[in-house]
Amino acid sequence: MDLQRTETYQEIISQTIAWEEAINVVRQTTPAFHTQWQSGHITNAIFTGCGSTYYLSLSAASFFQEMTGIPSRAVPAGELYLYPQANIPDRERTMLVAISRSGGTSETVAAVQRFQRQGSGIVVVISNYPDSPLAQLGDHAILIPAGREKSVAQTRSFASMYLAVTAFTAGLVNRNDLVDEMAGLPALGNRSINNYHDTAREIGENLDIDRFYFLGSGDRYGLACEASLKMKEMTLTHSEPFHFLEFRHGPMAMVTPSSQIVGLLSETRRTHEKAVLDEMHTLGARILSLGESETMVNFDSRLPEEIRNVLYLPVLQLLACSRSVAKGLNPDQPAHLNAVVSLDL
Amino acid sequence: MDLQRTETYQEIISQTIAWEEAINVVRQTTPAFHTQWQSGHITNAIFTGCGSTYYLSLSAASFFQEMTGIPSRAVPAGELYLYPQANIPDRERTMLVAISRSGGTSETVAAVQRFQRQGSGIVVVISNYPDSPLAQLGDHAILIPAGREKSVAQTRSFASMYLAVTAFTAGLVNRNDLVDEMAGLPALGNRSINNYHDTAREIGENLDIDRFYFLGSGDRYGLACEASLKMKEMTLTHSEPFHFLEFRHGPMAMVTPSSQIVGLLSETRRTHEKAVLDEMHTLGARILSLGESETMVNFDSRLPEEIRNVLYLPVLQLLACSRSVAKGLNPDQPAHLNAVVSLDL
Fold first, then answer.
1. B249 touches A: beta carbon within 8 Å
2. By the CB < 8 Å criterion, does A187 face chain B?
3. What is the homologous superfamily of the domain A185-326 according to CATH?
4. How confident is the model at residue B1, as a pLDDT?
5. Of the N and C termini of chain A, which has fewer Cβ atoms inside 10 Å?
6. Residue among A82, A233, A253 minimizing CB distance to B232
């Protein structure tokens, strides 16, 4: 199979069109929601999804709490559905942000419906499908058709919804300056794809590597989770995400010379994060570092740290996609999986 | 190496002595803290630790929120230290529960010190070492010396601290009936060790298995994480934890006939959870189910679901320990690891 002929590859390299749409959609729709938000007296926020969109929720919740000061958490939709008491605070007015590419994932729909029956608060939906069941349920919906995909594994859909939630959050707290700066991201994404396309292929096609560990802290932990899931889905390779400092507390027992450690470095805490990568290098692991500067993959974006995280995604998606083809697999159709999971709940 | 001569094995099979001490210590010390708790107007709780004790925190936070209705979350101590704003709610009175076997883990100590400098709320410490730095820092400390270990990988220390946090939570909400019922757990634990010792060895010694997935939802997710970490630390085998329904959203691509799926089943949501195990069985995976009844490992405890979770631990610890010996490894000394992680922070 030729890498460039796969849907997944085409969806990855063309994704910045969906980034652009995501930012524009949020610019156009957030003002209408802003009044509801200001009068809503929201005391906490829950971000939910399944698989990739749960990982998106982890990053989104971290960013949302930092920006708004409102306690925010990510919960897998299946857990929110099965264990609402352990996850939805009593006596609080909650904003539930439900994220689903298809807008039809059964647990996410069921969790939202139960939340609404209980009258717990407001629901915001983020999806790539305007006609989906979830889109109809939301008090507010952010819909980005340009993120739609033919592949089962989410790549540009993920990035588009991630950018949408970032811009949405900035808009809610009147940081339109940040939303304006985000307009530079598509061009930066294209540059990063061009500059590091070959780096991603080189590591992806190296089949001496038999395990991947993706390290990310703060807002970047969810992105590390997502990068790890791409590796599993597309390449059937063992891979796991960890918070940087957590990796030392047990998981590093698994480090071997055939391990690839991928570090999603921040600027502000890079000393602590880089120390983990250096220690793993001395244990024999291969290291790939990504970040704004002085890393193996540099974004050189000059954008504020809190809005440029989407730049970590394309290179890591390309890495998984090229490994998939190098292993003789089809990245468009992962083993055992379907694009939408439907359960009877 | 003879399994029965390892420290880890001896610590696992003798752990119910530490369970007993944990329950007794909480009974004796919680009343003194109760007044402070009632006047503290706590609006949220954070449970923190590193590695095993972060996983303990995940289960504890879920249980604490269910029992008290107070929004509760688990945060790795490294993240709490590096990213306090994304994790500690502003303008709220927080109870921080810091859990550390040694009481000396550098990130946990640093996170507590920063929390106290910021005057964010009350600190409760749970540890096996009364003379440790953390024990001195807490406004309240729950100390269980009988949980101490010679091994690097935590087994009975984990169970003892987990029981302590369960009894402590029940005591805070005046559910002394539950604490009384917990007194039956040590005998039930011993029975489970006797009844399922051979089951654990049989699966542990089967080296045809090359990957383990531990599934648990609600309070049991953190225990699934811990069981997975034991497998990594002691046996250097690929293993990962997932929430039950999350497993279908991508990770199941990795299922093969050499996969062992271990399900920590609940009673109340078992229909949904069991459906995942059945589906993985049809994909060819091996299944081990644990639960109160109608599972491969039955507790037959007749105790309320919310207080008997500790019973999942011994069998899963034995499984890892016997696999370690079967692979020619030393379970007492995992690769690359030390019992206490010390960093310059």
1. yes
2. no
3. Glucose-6-phosphate isomerase like protein; domain 1 (3.40.50.10490)
4. 82
5. N
6. A253
